[in-house]
Each structure stands twice: as C-alpha cells, then as structure tokens.
Write a structure and sequence with these properties.
Subcellular location: Mitochondrion matrix
Distance between the termini: 50 Å
Keywords: Exonuclease, Hydrolase, Magnesium, Metal-binding, Mitochondrion, mRNA processing, Nuclease, Phosphoprotein, Transit peptide
Strand content: 25-35%
Radius of gyration: 31 Å
Shape: elongated
CATH architecture of the largest domain: 4-Layer Sandwich
Largest sheet: 7 strands, mixed
CATH topology of the largest domain: Deoxyribonuclease I, Chain A
Cofactor: Mg(2+)
Structural class: alpha+beta
Number of domains: 3
GO cellular component, one term: mitochondrial matrix
GO molecular function: metal ion binding; poly(A)-specific ribonuclease activity
Length: about 600
C-alpha cells in the first residue's frame, strides 16, 4: 500500500504504486505493479489480485493452507494462456503483414520475501504471501500488499442543507475512518446548466476534514467526496469517490438549539461530564398517516421526513459537545447509517439496544477520549421479570394480579445499562442507564413495575458487580413530576396505597410497597415541559443522578416558550423531535 499522506494524495488514484524491496527488483522497483492479497484468519481462503503482463486482470481465491507451489503453478498457467492469446493476435497481425511474433512460453513464477530470499514452495499460502514480498512472473515484478486499507462503503446523506454538517458513512477494512484522507469537491455550476448534464468539479474546502458544512454559496450545487483509506501506520489504499444524489438546499435558518450551543461550544474539562438525554422521535412513528394528520398536523410534511430531521439532529447533537448522550426512539437503521457514523466523527462511540419486536430502541454514546466501556448489562423488562432471579420477590407479588402481570409481559420496553471508566482516572467508574417506559397515559401502574425492575437491575450492577459506583439514569419516563414513578425514583419508596396503583381502573389495581437504595435527584429539575405537541405538553424526560457522588455544575437552559411555539408546537422545521433534549454538566463530588 502507499506510504504517507502525500503519496496517498498524489498517486493513489493510479493502479500501480511505488515501493521497492525483494529480490531481483533493481531499477524496476519504481515501476512495480501491485499484487493485492487479502488474508483474514477467520476465512478459509485468501484472495490475490494482480494484472498480468498481457493486461488481463486476475482475481484468484486459494486455500490458506495450500502449499505456495500450487498457487504459483496456477499463476504460471494463467500467464501462459495470456501469452497464447497474445501470440494469436500477433499471428493475425503477421498474416496482415505485421512483424513476426515471439513464440509463446510458460513464464517462470517465483515469490521472494521482503529480504530477497526465495519463499519455499511447501510454505502454506497464508504464511508465504507477506506484505512487501515480490512476485516474479517472467520479467514482470509485483510488490505484494497484504491486507492494504480498503473502503467497503462510502455514502453521503440524501439530504444536504447549507449550514448543516455533512457526515459521510465510511466503512473500511484494515483501516479506520479517523485515519482516512478526505477531499471535498463541489460542482463548478449546477448540472442542469452544464453541457452534457455534468459540470466540472472544484475543491470545496481548503482543510481536508471528514465532516464538511456547506455554506449558502453552495446552494444548488452537488458535492463530491474523495476518500483514501488509511490505517494510521502511514499505509493508504486506493481512493473511492461518491457524488451526492442531489444539490445542497437552503437550511431553515435559526433552530431551537442554536442559543443552547452558545453554552456548549467546548467539551467540559477534567472531572466533569456533560450528559444529554433526548427522545429523538423514531421515523417509524413520525412517518405515519396518523402522525401527519392527527398528532402533528401543524408540522410541514417535509420537516417530518427522516432525511430532513437527520440534518437537524446531527447538528444539534454535535453542537452539545457532550460526553454522554442517551437517546430514545432510535430507529435501527438511523443508528447504523446516520447517527453512529456522524457522532463517531465528533469523537463519540455508540451502543444500541433494540426494543423487543420493534424497529427502534435506545442508544448510548460516550466520548472516546474521556471514557471507555467496561461492560454492558442491557435487559428487556418482560424477559427479566420472567426469568431473572433478581426479580423473584416482585414476580411472586405480581402473581396475585394476573391482568397487570400480562400487560407488563406484553410490553416491549428495554433498559440499556453501560459501565464506563474514566480514561484519565481508572478508579472513577460510572453506571449509565437509559430507558423509555410504557407510554399510555393510564399506564402508571405498569411504569411503576417497569421502574422497579430497572432499579433492581441497576442495584445489582452498582452495588454487587461494581460496589458503590455512581449512577446516571436517563430516559423518557413518560411520567410527570406528580406521578408515582417520579416520586418513587426521587424518594426511594412508594406506598401500596398510592393512587397510581389504580391508574387504569379497579380491575387493573395492584397494590404493593416498593423501595430502592439509591439517593437520586433530577439533575435538570422539573421543567414546565420536555414534550410539546398539539394536544399535550408536560415534563416526561429526566437525567437522574446519584446525589452522593455527583453534583450539578450547570443546566443548559431549555429553548424559550416563544422558540418552542414559533411554528405552533413540536416537531417543526426548526426542531427535529416532539421532545426537547435535556443537557447538564456534572462533576464528581
């Protein structure tokens, strides 16, 4: 593979690359062709790609355990066939009065190690084809590149808005996105005006960054990205290019989160963590006829489309410079294709937990240079209640209320729990929980059972597995500050005669006292609302923190009521969800 960024930038588009080494290469080193070998321990075969002297491209699959001699014999056979074809052409040319043809011959095929030793024909392929070895096919020389960096996927978002970051999806083998080289181009003029439908491309950004934010001047023009895969060890593979499917469009102007970004321009310092909790409105719920006509009739249809909302979400989340981001209602495909690649570019690592029988779930992101993942302990409430010995007592109590028990078991809600460790101080560990409780307004009793399961599970992790580590519990709890669920989390107990035990009428009554050992507080207090739609507004989302170990340094102000209601309610052209993100800076006590 190519060495060094300059080499990658200048010569990576050509099929042959520079590089010497190996026996008998002498002055031909500079003109050596490439033989690209892909050899992965988990696969039985290795692949070998090169171009024969007659110009024909070869792609061979050979068993990794096969002796090298058999692979070389196959290469010789292929080369001889190529010679024969060339001789035929030459004979035809001679018949037409051309020069005499060279007689066809089977070329000698040998492999030499990087230090010039001939590799024994009995050596297995997997051991023989090493990086830097030199393959001889007759007079031709090929430098072996073993597992060079290669792009497996390069994609641009479908919707591009001026003023909003464009985050490509980059998947690579033997390479990492942070080590790849990026060059952004724009059309010189719109394709419609250019002769033949496609205009010339000019460099769009002086700095070669992975994320590009188009300016208003680029509205109407398409973008192109050239990416050269790199592995961080100064090895670069062949570049790939991708063009945007449509032009850059005008952005919506001011968004509800712009003023909040004034508080979150920088990542907070050591000993501090910025946490975000946000229900981002799953596409599976935003794109239904019911959503468009009943839930959000005030929202422009284009602003409910996923591609549009993704632009806003990526800019909003990137601008919070958070260390921990807990998201709810994350579509599986949105996590994989959009959020994970975008937030990865801003230094965040993502974890996903899908809901049972659903297409959406929970995502937790953490800042890579401040935190590392120690372990994951995700559960589905229904499954945990049925089978985990931790919940035996609760199971026994619930058995007296079969209707309620059945309803809890039918729910698809999950709990995501990640234990993280500080990168600078390994003695500092933290248990980060994320959930989205049952939504129904009359489901207070179900939510109480769900939160009891959650807190028992968290207790097992933060008291038994990692004794006395602090907890942060984020989520959409679908519970207002006056609810039993909020009171239970906050106070540590709930009485068996609390009114929420009969939230759905007498036949679904279930009375039981509950308690948990944590001292938790809502870090962002009790805002007037975190969810604002046409028919409802209220506080449903919280970041609960361990009072004994953590304290709140600052709460980032929520958007003003005027901003929230500019377009009547949420979501809107300037806000991507029906919920509002909660953001706070925490410090260890």
């Amino acid at each position: 593979a190519l060495r060094g960024p300059a080499a990658a930038a200048s010569s990576s588009s050509s099929s042959s690359s520079s590089g010497g080494g190996g026996s008998g290469s002498g002055s031909v080193a500079a003109a050596m062709e490439r033989a690209v070998v892909r050899c992965v321990p988990s696969e039985p075969k290795l692949s070998l790609q090169f171009v024969l002297p007659d110009g024909s491209a070869k792609h061979m699959q050979r068993d990794q355990e096969e002796p090298l001699g058999r692979a070389l014999a196959r290469i010789a056979t292929n080369a001889a066939k190529g010679h024969a074809k060339a001789a035929k052409k030459s004979k035809k040319a001679r018949a037409e009065g051309g020069a005499a043809a060279e007689p066809a011959a089977v070329p000698a095929v040998r492999l030499f190690s990087r230090d010039g030793e001939a590799v024994g024909e009995e050596v297995p392929n997997a051991a023989a084809w090493q990086d830097g070895a030199v393959l001889h096919i007759g007079e031709a020389r090929y430098r072996v590149e073993r597992n060079p960096p290669a792009l497996t996927e390069l994609r641009l978002p479908r919707s591009l808005l001026a003023g909003f970051p464009v985050c490509p999806k980059v998947s690579a083998e033997f390479a990492a996105p942070q080590h790849c080289l990026f060059r952004w181009f724009r059309e010189q003029r719109p394709a419609a005006e250019a002769a033949g439908g496609g205009g010339a491309w000019v460099e769009a950004a002086a700095a070669a960054e992975r994320v590009f934010t188009p300016s208003n001047a680029l509205v109407g023009l398409r973008l192109k990205l050239r990416c050269t895969p790199g592995d961080g060890a100064q090895r670069y593979g062949p570049p790939r290019e991708v063009e945007s499917s449509g032009p850059v469009e005008a952005g919506p102007g001011a968004c509800t989160f712009d003023a909040r970004h004034l508080y979150t321009g920088k990542v907070c310092g050591g000993g501090r963590l910025r946490a975000v909790s946000y229900n981002i409105l799953a596409d599976v719920y935003a794109q239904t006829e019911f959503s468009r006509t009943v839930l959000y009739p005030y929202c422009a249809p284009y602003a409910l489309e996923l591609d549009y909302r993704q632009n806003l979400l990526q800019k909003e989340l990137a601008g919070y410079s958070a260390d921990l981001v807990c998201l709810q209602e994350v579509d599986k495909s949105v996590f994989a294709d959009s959020l994970a690649p975008a937030l990865d570019a801003f230094g965040l690592e993502g974890l996903f937990k899908i809901k049972e029988k659903q297409h959406e779930g929970l995502a937790t992101f953490y800042r890579r240079d401040k935190l590392s993942l120690l372990s994951r302990h995700d559960i589905a409430f229904s499954e945990a209640l049925l089978s985990d010995p931790l919940h035996e007592e609760l199971r026994a109590r619930l058995a007296a209320y079969p209707l309620v028990q059945e309803k809890v078991l039918q729910r698809s809600s999950v709990l995501q729990v990640s234990v993280l460790q500080s990168a600078t101080d390994p003695s500092r560990k933290i248990c980060v929980a994320n959930t989205h409780l049952y939504w129904h307004p009359k489901g207070g009793n179900i939510r109480l059972i769900q939160i009891a399961i959650a807190l028992s599970h968290i207790k097992h992790i933060a008291c038994d597995l990692y004794p006395s580590i602090p907890i942060i519990f984020c989520g959409d709890f679908n519970s207002t500050p006056s609810s039993g669920t909020y009171s239970f989390i906050n106070s540590g107990s709930i009485a068996e005669d609390h009114e929420d035990w009969v939230s759905n009428g007498e036949e679904e009554r279930c009375n039981m006292p509950l308690s948990h050992p944590f001292k938790l507080q809502s870090a962002c207090g009790e805002p007037a609302y975190t969810n604002y739609v046409g028919g409802f507004h209220g506080c449903l989302d919280y970041i609960f923190i361990d009072k004994n170990a953590l304290e709140v340094e600052q709460v980032i102000p929520l958007p003003s009521h005027e901003e929230v209601t500019t377009h009547q309610a949420l979501p809107s052209v300037s806000h991507p969800s029906d919920h509002i993100a909660l953001i706070c800076d925490l410090k260890w006590k």
